[in-house]
Amino acid sequence: MQFQVDSFHKLLKKKTILSIIALLFTISSFAQEETSTYQIKRNGDVIGQMQFKQKRNGTDTYLKMNSKVKTRFIFEIDVQTDDEAHFKNGQLVFSTVYRKVNGREKERKETKLINQSYLLQAGNKSNAINGSINYNMMLLYCKEPVNIAQVYSDSFQQVLAIKRMAPNTYRINLPDGNYNDYYFQNGICKTVKVHHSLYTITMELV
Predict the structure, then answer these.
(1) Is residue 95 part of a domain?
(2) Same domain for 74 and 1?
(3) What's the Cα-to-Cα distance from 81 to each of 66, 156, 173, 180, rounded to whole Å?
């Protein structure tokens, strides 16, 4: 009888250990989310904050970027952005770009993979492009473009060239005549400088 009790206790202990291992594995699976925060500065003053999140789940990668900026030019301006992207097996499946300025919707765009092409939606207008998108502007915040020559802009809905300016430094010229510079350290994007004809904004990793 004692033998049966001991065997039962051993079996119960084994099941408990296996349950704990399974729980820890589940927790580690959900823990594959990384968050980075950037301070947004203009003329040395902090005018906002940007938060970037990357979540991996098997072959799926989810990116999310939110920012809030409040500054003054001739008048006060309040800008909020919400960008999201979903990659599967390294290929862009879906992305959205949303901009709100002074409480009003300014921009809403979508890029969606359908069969072998992408449907581009910008307000009431739609377009399409062929080919595979494997690197977009959001990935610049978590993956240095080593040996990557082009990047997809979800905002402009165009493929843009990446120009290497110096070691770990890259420039992207935008269709509107402005440009962004990205500075990396140990493969991590530390600083982004947004050069506009009217201003320069710096985003620094904190």
Answers:
(1) no
(2) no
(3) 5, 15, 21, 17
Rounded Cα distance between 165 and 171, Å, is 7
The segments of the chain whose pLDDT lies below 50 read: 5, 8, 11-12, 18, 20-29, 31
**E-assigned strand segments in the chain:** 33-42, 45-57, 60-72, 76-88, 91-101, 104-114, 117-122, 125-130, 150-153, 158-161, 163-166, 169-173, 179-185, 188-195, 200-205
Structural domain range at position 15: 1-31
Number of domains in the chain: 2
Cα dihedral across residues 149, 152, 155, 158: positive or negative:
positive
Sign of CA dihedral 133, 139, 144, 149: positive
Q: Give which of 35, 132, 45, 123 is closest to 88, Cα–Cα.
A: 132
Inside any domain, residue 80: yes
**Predicted local confidence at residue 19, as pLDDT:** 52
pLDDT score of 87: 98
Residue in the block written with tokens 């269709």? 175
Residue 128 lies in a domain: no
- Phi, psi (deg, nearest 5) at residue 129: -135, 150
Q: What is the pLDDT of residue 133?
A: 97
